[in-house]
Design a protein that fits this description.
Helices cover 13% and strands 21% of the residues. With 76 residues, it is of the alpha+beta class.
């Protein structure tokens, strides 16, 4: 038995309990834990892009937000 892990599976939102397809990548850095060049990535669906972004921005961690390449669900 092998666990299927299709590489082309749609990325899923990083918000807790959310199973929506992610269309945004929020790149962040915690200066207390990471070197300045390091980027962590959270994926976000349209609904959680603001809440996840605000969470990071309030802590001064948010560096950039970009649309996921290949996404076809941006016409919100
Ligand atoms: Zn979500």
């Amino acid at each position: 038995m092998t666990v299927p892990t299709p590489a082309d599976e749609a990325p899923i939102c990083s918000a807790r309990g959310c199973r929506a397809s992610a269309v945004w990548a929020l790149r962040w850095n915690n200066p207390r834990l990471h070197t300045p060049e390091r980027r962590k990535t959270w994926l976000a669906c349209p609904e959680h892009r603001t809440s996840l972004g605000d969470f990071l921005d309030a802590r001064g961690f948010l560096r950039e937000v970009s649309a996921l390449p290949g996404s076809h669900t941006l016409e919100a």
